[in-house]
Amino acid sequence: MDVTEGSTQPDAISPDLIECADGLARPPWAAANRMLQEYYDTEWGMPIRDEQGVYERLCLEAFQSGLSWALVLSKRDAFRHAFARFDPEKVANFCDQDIERLLENPKIIRNRAKIEAAIANAKATLSMREEGGLAALVWSFQPDSTPRPFTLEDIPKQTAESVALSKALKKRGCKFVGPVTAFALMEAIGMVDTHLVGSHRRGSSGVWA
Q1: pLDDT (tens digit per residue) in 3-20
Q2: Where along this sequence does the record place binding of Zn(2+) (predicted)?
Q3: Catalytic pick from 40, 55, 69, 139?
């Protein structure tokens, strides 16, 4: 099924949306609790174009790999505190002692490979400033059209653009940035709009008017 923007789809609400107590329709993951509802309503899919913001999302998507986003989101404040508000200049200078400190922090996800990836990604972020910066690089892979999913099955896990973005990030030293993680990043920062047809959030980013 062609699910790109502009394709023919039923003028109806996706059957995969759940009507919440406030009368708004959300996908199952966003209807699970108030924390996820607020994140879905105010953050997910809204444009992020600054270096720190993209770097933070890149790191959090990496920590989410193999786990639930709800878990990562519930620990986001702790992550921000532990990782110096995701200031790439500060994280790039983390040493072995910092890694051990993070591994002993029960408030975050204590995975050595992911922690080391956050540090590697900070160093890569600094090096990318010479070629326009992390945000510019990531957004250069914005597709010409966005999916228009009517069901959850219509939402791709990865795309040609996310595969290319993954390769570009890895080439520059980034870790934990496979095509699936890259696509999740693209969704989170508004590069694509995968809100289901009928969601009150679809088209709200202003990127895909």
Answers
A1: 454 443 445 789 999 999
A2: 195
A3: 69
